From TrEMBL:
Record keyword Membrane present: no
PROSITE patterns linked to this entry: HTH_ARAC_FAMILY_1, HTH_ARAC_FAMILY_2
InterPro entries linked: Homeodomain-like_sf (IPR009057), HTH_AraC (IPR018060), HTH_AraC-typ_CS (IPR018062), PocR_dom (IPR018771), Tscrpt_reg_AraC-type_HTH (IPR020449)
Assigned keywords, A-Z: DNA-binding, Transcription, Transcription regulation
Span of the signal peptide: none
Stated name of the protein: Helix-turn-helix domain-containing protein
Organism: Acetobacterium malicum
Start and end residues of each HTH araC/xylS-type domain: 333-431
PANTHER family: ARAC-FAMILY TRANSCRIPTIONAL REGULATOR, HTH-TYPE TRANSCRIPTIONAL ACTIVATOR RHAS
Tagged with keyword Cell wall biogenesis/degradation: no
């Protein structure tokens, strides 16, 4: 795969998120300290570093790469190993197609697997007669001259299983920490750009309105009654309206930092008054204001002030959604009770709907309207909640827990758990270890 190849929609490139030179320096230091080779590849198994990075490979791997088909075979193996590592959310130890021991540690950002750390090119035992036979068999499609390859085996490091696991975990933690920091900077830059776009669009809107209306007719942007009306819309529409207020207030501040701070503070105060008029508990909203207003007066960046206010608006909308609890339909209670009793079984929408004497279609519709998620997603949530309690007991193996909550396969259970919690069951257990 060529690095200049068009990217798929939403595909993240590591080079967009973090300084490649910094990663290279970390890997070089790791290699110098441990004697172990390390590389970072993208989702297709291709190194993110320049071609000269091949010199960092061991002699054995350089020979394999020089053979026709060798490079493609290695990249395909790295791609497969990266996917496995991402599936389980932790380092994955494997034997490469050429016979060496390597390990893959996933780099995951925003739930998306964006790359893999490949480390190793080692042996875990002294070569014996069977090893040489197997090595020849594994590489016979690449070459029939094994003298140089066998000679290169003598230069390979022999490491213990504990060394493999420790070094794999070290690289996994360090690289993901750096990537997370890079991703946060990337997201912030993108949000700044979005706020600038909204601001410039608002300038054009104001120019157009000013041409059509006398200044004396202008009203304040912050109309509490109108805000209440807009908050009764769905979240997307309410968010768009409030983002328009942020852009409009920024325009009215005319690039004056003190005025912008005052206007954004006024917006948050007005929102809190609106919430009070609606009749909701004020504590969570006042907490949002305290945090946001403090940050607004700490920064001198006008883009940053807009971003802080936008995040506060998001927090308001989340709290409003959480407060919008509807009276529970008795049919929903019948279905959730049935799920709570039978979640370890192979549940179906039909069986759950039948518990309330409803058709599957109607049951699914009212269930989602009431609880905000499909019936089978609720089943998954119940299973994950039950498994979290079991994970607190160190005597239960992951496979046993998977079976107790309705999964015959620990790998699939791990994938579902990670989707809901953002970490694997093993990581959850480590974090909550008593």
């Amino acid at each position: 795969m060529d690095h200049n190849e068009p990217r798929k929609p939403n595909q993240k490139r590591l080079s967009d998120l973090v300084d490649i030179k910094t990663l290279q320096e970390i890997l070089d230091a790791f290699t110098t300290t441990t004697g172990l080779m390390a590389n970072i590849v993208d989702g297709e198994g291709v190194s993110i570093f320049p071609r000269k990075g091949i010199k960092k490979c061991c002699k054995f791997c350089r020979i394999i790469y020089s053979l026709e088909g060798g490079k493609n075979r290695c990249q395909a193996a790295y791609k497969r190993a990266g996917k496995q590592a991402a599936l389980f959310g932790e380092p994955y130890i494997f034997r490469c197609p050429s016979g060496l021991i390597e390990w893959a540690a996933p780099i995951v950002l925003g739930g998306e697997h964006v790359g893999t750390i490949i480390c190793g090119q080692v042996l875990m035992w002294e070569p014996e007669e069977f090893f040489w036979i197997e090595l020849r068999k594994m590489n016979q499609t690449l070459t029939d001259d094994f003298e140089e390859l066998f000679e290169a085996v003598g230069e390979l490091a022999i490491v213990t299983g504990n060394q493999v696991q420790a070094s794999a975990y070290l690289l996994y933690v360090v690289a993901n920490y750096i990537m997370k920091a890079g991703w946060e900077n990337f997201e912030q830059s993108r949000e700044f750009a979005r706020q600038r776009t909204l601001y410039h669009a608002e300038i054009e809107n104001h120019k157009s309105r000013e041409e059509q209306a006398d200044k004396s007719d202008r009203r304040s942007l912050l109309d509490e009654d109108e805000i209440i009306v807009q908050l009764q819309q769905n979240r997307k529409k309410a968010k768009a309206y409030l983002e328009g207020l942020i852009s409009g207030l920024r325009y009215e501040a005319h690039q004056n930092l003190a005025q912008l701070r005052a206007k954004m503070t006024e917006l948050l105060v007005v929102l809190s008054r609106v919430v009070n008029r609606i009749g909701l508990a004020m504590a969570p909203f006042l907490h949002i204001n305290d945090q946001a207003i403090g940050q607004i007066y700490q920064t001198t960046s006008q883009e940053n002030i807009s971003v802080i206010t936008s995040k506060a608006v998001d927090a308001y909308l989340e709290q409003l959604e959480a407060a919008a609890v509807k009276p529970e339909n008795p049919n929903i209670t019948l279905m959730t009770d049935y799920i709570d009793k039978h979640y370890p079984n192979n549940l179906t929408v039909e069986a759950i709907a039948d518990a309330a004497c409803l058709s599957p279609g109607y049951a699914g519709r009212i269930f989602k309207e009431q609880l905000g998620l499909p019936i089978m997603d609720y089943v998954l949530k119940v299973r994950i909640d039950k498994s979290k309690k079991l994970l607190l007991n160190p005597h239960y193996q992951i496979q046993a827990i998977a079976e107790k909550v309705g999964y015959g396969d620990a790998g699939y259970f791990t994938k579902v758990f990670r989707k809901f919690e953002g970490i694997t069951p093993t990581q959850f257990r480590k974090i909550h270890k008593r």
